Amino acid sequence: MQNPDVEVPVSENAHAADQEEGDELRRVRFPTVFAVARRANGVKDQTVIELRELCRTFVVQRGREEIVTRALGPITLSIADLQFVGILGRSGSGKTTLLRLIAGLVQPTAGDVLVDGQRVRGPGPDRAVVFQQSALYPWRTVEANVRLGLELSRLAKKGTADEIVHRLLDLVGLGDFGGYYPNQLSGGMQQRVGLARALAVSPRHLLMDEPFGSVDAILRRELGAELLRIWELDRRTVVFITHSVEEALTLSDRVIVLKDGLVADDVTINLPRPRDPEAISDDPAFLQLRRSLLTTL
Length: 297
Ligand SMILES: Nc1ncnc2c1ncn2[C@@H]1O[C@H](COP(=O)(O)OP(=O)(O)O)[C@@H](O)[C@H]1O
Ligand SMILES: [Mg+2]
Fold this sequence. Notes:
The chain is built from eleven helices and ten strands. With about 300 residues, the chain is an alpha/beta fold. It folds into two domains: about 1-45, no CATH class; about 80-105 and about 120-295, Rossmann fold (3-Layer(aba) Sandwich), CATH 3.40.50.300. α2 (about 25-30) packs across α3 (about 30-40). The termini are far apart.
């Protein structure tokens, strides 16, 4: 359904900017407008990631013996457009395997992953991944690291790429650090660069595997708040993996609990947005959800 209250100035601005720019680049330059346009068109509840009877086993050789581990599945679930979905589970519950299957970094043993209706056969620029370790190139400056995805995908011309890189570095609070090298930054700053790099290609979907798992608790909360602020400005589907109940609850619209590779719980989080992580942790609804999730874990 069209929402007459929402203005979508995409075509006018974009065509004026450059006739040659494809839809993809326009989305890079005006990501929020695109998100708003999708929502205004009632696309919000549309399934964008679908798992069908998804399984993954691993075979490990132990001497002459083959040990088969079922890391995941069977799992069947749908993730809606522009939702922030937390995947919560203890260590070894299959979270990373699930994320890597959606990213196309591993293939299912059985079942399917569909993203935007297409079966996933490998990684693609529609799905950016942020890992626990930021995996930045040490010989590239912060700016050059963020620009990497744009260079690889030839998504933007030089001038446009610079504009995108600067906008993103400002967004993650690193506007003054473009010329630094990764080893000159703290762990939290490196994770911010990783996030900026992922956002640079303007992926439809953002996949995050315990992105703040290696920083201290206070910084973790700050980075979570920052991610929320960015997500509010520039919404997209996020699959966010964590073993922290509080982090999952603070960030997510929906929390899926994994246990021994299976979905043990699937909870809608109706806490009001925008959220203040500090304030929300005292909310009685938060505390009740927390108790219930801790029991399931
Ligand atoms: N490449 C692999 N080879 C063998 N076993 C694996 C591999 N990856 C994951 N597993 C096993 O699958 C299970 C789930 O792992 P993982 O998805 O990494 O869990 P989590 O991210 O929740 O800690 C674990 O038992 C793990 O040992
Ligand atoms: Mg993991």
